[in-house]
Amino acid sequence: MKNGSKELAIKGIHEINKVERFIEEICDYYNVNNEYFGNILLATTEAAEILLSLNNVLEKGRLLIHFERSQKGLIFKIKLLDGTGHEGAEEDILDKEIRKHKLSKEIFIVKALADEITISINGKAIIMTFYISSMNYEKSLQRINKLKEYWEKRVTLSPQKNE
């Protein structure tokens, strides 16, 4: 993985399996456990589907998914692109408000699974951050607690009877 970043472009909802493979490769590379992998996979694919459906471009829409590894964790930036490969053209204020309202209802599951989420004002980009540094901290705490339990166990010996 070059410089801790990677990109994927898909054309429509029928290529969502490419997103799944993309996420699986990243999680394998960074040794992310299965439970957290499920969160990342579901949140990212759901966010991609939301952007495509809210912008009425399920089949012809193009998404750019940019992955970046930072000190915070794994960051996925999903942008809806127009036919030229750039972010979509500006829209009027009413359309923006309708899109924001729909987006706020649809985004609940993504917000529940990601550690941080940022949604663009025009509803054409979602940035999700997943903290993975805490996983190693949790494992360390579990190991420390197991060692403490081991050393704190008191062995009581019962006196043996002479026969």
Kindly report the average pLDDT value. 79
Overall helicity: 40-55%
CATH superfamily descriptor = Histidine kinase-like ATPase, C-terminal domain
Strand content: 15-25%
The arrangement of helices and strands along the chain is: EHHEEHHEEH
Distance between the termini: 72 Å
CATH architecture: 2-Layer Sandwich
The number of strands is: 5
> Order of strands across the widest beta sheet?
1-2-3-5-4
CATH-defined topology: Heat Shock Protein 90
Q: What characterizes the major β-sheet?
A: 5 strands, antiparallel
Structural class: alpha+beta
Shape estimate: elongated
3D structure, described in words:
With 163 residues, this protein is α+β, with helices and mostly antiparallel strands. It has a single domain (2-152), classed as Heat Shock Protein 90 (2-Layer Sandwich). The protein has five helices and five strands, in the order E-H-H-E-E-H-H-E-E-H. The chain has helices spanning 16-29, 34-54, 93-106, 108-113, 133-152; strands spanning 5-11, 62-69, 74-81, 116-119, 125-130. It has a five-stranded antiparallel β-sheet with strand order 1-2-3-5-4, covered by helices on one side. Strand 2 and strand 3 form a beta hairpin. The longest helix is centred in the first third of the chain and has 21 residues, at 34-54. The chain is elongated, with a radius of gyration of 23 Å. The N and C termini lie far apart (72 Å). The model has no long low-confidence stretch (mean pLDDT 79).
